[in-house]
Design goal:
The protein is 43% helix and 16% strand. Bound molecules: nicotinamide-adenine-dinucleotide.
Length: 334
């Protein structure tokens, strides 16, 4: 138990980052309770190694009755809210599930946490809520929100609900804004696993525009560590940026992976740019570093090697997603 937190309710714990957090939580000795709807992006395979140590509820966070029942039974000390519709391209195809899950779902959780009381409510946001940068500059926690995609607008709205529940009801809400995560178990619709998968199959690799867009790449275990630190030490009402400082243009990421796999750059196929594509994100993460000593431990070079190795070793898992993915790719890159 740290600072009165023993039992943690992890929403979206069968997702990419939420499952990493849940696996860490079990190793750290916390009682982990997961709520996950198991959308196309959720998969209990990710938490199989800790299944005996966790309590899992298949439930929708927008369903107030289910959420209330779970709070009533479990009485969590902390809520770590990862559950979301998380893919920008899907939000461009259809924004409505983003509104439901990311906005309404967050409000249902905040309201239920208010009724039952929690020590900490960590709202997981994203660097994308700040909008976009040009070649220079950084986003600070104080930078005004200026979200551009339906996804980032839904996340910014959730942040505002978190702010309101802290300000109005004194609910101990803390918002964490991580940069782009990558690592094992990421659903192969996001850039890095798509490139690995396509390259391994010698298929064309779609790259938006000229691949000039810049993202800051954070290894998934470093993100989970930061959130534990914020849960232990963070102050209610505060916001913490979490970025690695490892900025790369998309095309650099693609070339790096091709090189690791010994594949030709001839596989790259530039496609029509994403609608409203943000050019660059870059977080100033000095607050969490200076206040709590957080730093990223996994360099991009090391993390990407580990990730490529993981996908090679776990192709069976990825292949199980292909039927669903092929339909989606047709819609996105048509
Ligand atoms: N992946 C990134 O690079 C990144 C970067 C910054 C912030 N984030 C944020 O971190 C969180 C986790 O991201 P991720 O990449 O692990 O996402 P993910 O898409 O891999 O997982 C999301 C999980 O939420 C579950 N879920 C979706 N709708 C739900 C609902 N209505 N009720 C219950 N469960 C539901 C899904 O089944 C899935 O298990 C999200 O809030 C995302 O916005 C992600």
């Amino acid at each position: 138990m740290v600072n009165g937190v023993n039992k943690i309710l992890v929403t979206g714990g069968a997702g990419f980052i939420g499952s990493e957090f849940a696996r860490h939580g079990v190793k750290k000795g916390y009682k982990i309770v997961i709520i996950d709807k198991l959308t196309y992006a959720g998969d209990i395979e990710r938490i199989k190694e800790v299944e005996k140590a966790i309590t899992f509820y298949r439930a929708d966070i927008t369903d107030k009755k289910s959420v209330e029942r779970i709070f009533k039974t479990e009485r969590p000390d902390a809520v770590i809210h990862w559950a979301a519709e998380s893919h920008v391209d899907r939000s461009i195809l259809d924004a409505s599930p983003f509104l439901d899950t990311n906005v309404k779902g967050t409000q249902v959780l905040l309201e239920t946490a208010r009724i039952y009381g929690v020590e900490k409510f960590i709202n997981i946001s994203t660097d994308e809520v700040y909008g976009e940068l040009g070649e220079g500059g950084q986003f600070f926690e104080t930078t005004p929100l200026n979200p551009n995609s339906p996804y980032s607008v839904s996340k910014a709205s959730a942040d505002m609900f978190g702010r309101a529940y802290h300000r109005t009801y004194n609910l101990p809400v803390i918002t964490v804004r991580p940069s782009n995560n990558y690592g094992p178990w990421q659903y192969p619709e996001k850039l890095i696993p798509v490139v690995i998968l396509k390259a391994l199959n010698n298929e064309k690799i779609p790259v938006y525009g000229k691949g000039e867009n810049v993202r800051e790449w954070l290894f998934v275990s470093d993100c989970a560590d930061a959130v534990f630190l914020v849960m232990d030490k963070g102050e209610a009402g505060e916001i913490y940026n979490v970025g690695s400082g490892e900025e790369r243009r998309n095309i650099e990421v693609v070339r790096h992976i091709l090189k690791l796999l010994g594949k030709s750059e001839g596989l790259i196929e530039f496609t029509k740019d994403r609608l409203g594509h943000d050019f660059r994100y870059s977080l100033n993460s000095e607050k969490i570093k200076n206040q709590y000593g957080w730093k990223s431990h996994v360099s991009f070079d090391k993390g990407i090697e580990e990730t490529v190795r993981w996908y090679i070793d776990n192709m069976g898992w990825v292949k199980g997603k292909l039927a669903h993915l092929n339909k989606y790719w047709e819609a996105v890159y048509k």
